[in-house]
UniProtKB/TrEMBL annotation, chain A:
Cleaved signal peptide residues: none
Protein's gene: gcvH
NCBIfam families reported for this sequence: gcvH (TIGR00527), PRK01202.1 (NF002270)
The organism's place on the tree of life at top rank: Bacteria
Subunit comment: The glycine cleavage system is composed of four proteins: P, T, L and H.
N6-lipoyllysine carried by residues: 62
GO cellular component: cytosol; glycine cleavage complex
Known function: The glycine cleavage system catalyzes the degradation of glycine. The H protein shuttles the methylamine group of glycine from the P protein to the T protein.
Name of the molecule in the record: Glycine cleavage system H protein
InterPro entries per record: 2-oxoA_DH_lipoyl-BS, Biotin_lipoyl, GCV_H, GCV_H/Fam206, GCV_H_sub, Single_hybrid_motif
Cofactor(s) the protein needs: (R)-lipoate
Family statement: Belongs to the GcvH family.
Residue ranges of every copy of the Lipoyl-binding domain listed in the record: 21-103
UniProt GO BP: glycine decarboxylation via glycine cleavage system; protein lipoylation
From TrEMBL, chain B:
Biological processes annotated in GO: glycine decarboxylation via glycine cleavage system; methylation
An example molecular function term from Gene Ontology annotations: transaminase activity
Domain of life: Bacteria
Name of the protein in question: Aminomethyltransferase
Residue span, Aminomethyltransferase C-terminal domain: 285-363
Family statement: Belongs to the GcvT family.
EC annotation from Swiss-Prot or TrEMBL: 2.1.2.10
Subunit structure: The glycine cleavage system is composed of four proteins: P, T, L and H.
Functional note: The glycine cleavage system catalyzes the degradation of glycine.
Keywords (A to Z) from UniProt: Aminotransferase, Methyltransferase, Transferase
Record domain GCVT N-terminal: where: 11-267
Amino acid sequence: MSIPENLRYTREHEWVSGDEVVTIGVTAFAADSLGDVVYVQLPDVGDQVTAGEVCGEIESTKSVSDLYSPVTGEVVEVNQSVVDKPETVNADPYDAGWLLRVRASSVPELLAADAYAALIQEG
Amino acid sequence: MKTPKILKTPLHEVHLQLGASFTDFAGWSMPVRYSSELAEHRAVREAAGQFDLSHMGEIELSGPQAAGALDYALVGNLSAVRVGRARYTMMCDESGGVLDDLVVYRLQHDRFLVVANAGNVAVVADRLRERAGGFDAQVDDRSVKTALIAVQGPHSPAIVATATGADLSGLKYYASMPARVGEHEVLLARTGYTGEDGFEVFTDADEAVAVWQSLAAAGESHGLLPSGLACRDTLRLEAGMPLYGNELSTELTPMHAGLGRVVKFDKPGDFVGRAALEKAPEPDRVLVGLRGGGRRAPRHGYRVLHGERAVGEVTSGALSPTLGYPIAMAYVEREFAEPGTELGADIRGRTQPVTVVPMPFYKRSTT
């Protein structure tokens, strides 16, 4: 399971890159556990999101999962191409499958790649 | 605390080698998908899929009065089933509630095979023993010794013909025959749960791996994909087939599910549930199909609305991979059950319009 070294992670299986404006997605582990993603609901540009709180939904053929915001701040961009083609989350979770960009006012402590790897090893 | 033991089928190692993801289902660790459930779903609709269904129960009834015992134990008229044929039927409790839905094969004049859902095997076996008590018939739960492999899809006849060397032209839908896969004797049935033409292969648990591999090899040039429970669920939903625990339960009679035709009131003799089912009033809510717009599916447990009022509940739902729009089954109050009725579904706090439609949602074209 791929876990890029240069990203930071949450225990809820989101990844984060960048500092002031952060890009957020879900990990390959999450995408794989969900199964084929068929619907993604994201916040609107301008919405405020709060670290640890639900900011969207990801639906696979079998289930619906909440998307938690890893940071607090204002949504500055959402990935419309993922909304249009939700399967991108499975195909390319760390790149084309990014979900939203947030101008972060507060970033809680996040996991480094090795800590996240250990977390998903535990099951 | 006692942790329940998770059961593994005789094909577990094969699934591991194929890279399956697993899910716990009725106490069994079962492959939920191997690669992508949508690819597996499409393979079954367009080519073929291979399923491990060894978690299901196989219970044999034999003896001079086996048919009579089944007529008493189940709601169907099993004496009327000819040797080599199979019947979809149900076991009800005294009050008419559904204990399980079953497929029963008549293997010989005095020998039947009852196939039960994984979660209900113990109940079905116990009740069969109890209900066969007054008959000259033996009940033998062979579930652990038996593996079940399904090959489903338009290419399945070619695959199964290659693997068995059998002439399948005389094997009708809902019929079975003894066959061989390589050295191994199997029971070959033309049945399934996907809406496609397909086969189910019953084999000794010890021989399951060899039989699986032979079928897989025969299917290689036909686009056969190993397929998990995730796609099995979307396939059966498209085909409008009820799932025990979702559409069927002891709280509901066969009539609720629109399956009153499986109850054979005209068969001679009593059967368990007859009195209650004969007296039962018209069900106040019935199972319907719903079609939604957009891409969000109403799912199990979501409310069905008429205006602000809850008039039903969804039992199964998914974005149909074949049709491209959301489909669901739901129990709704009778007056809202007519096809064409416009209702709403509460999808996580947002009401989305849905329309009552006839089932099945998908029907294969027979050529």
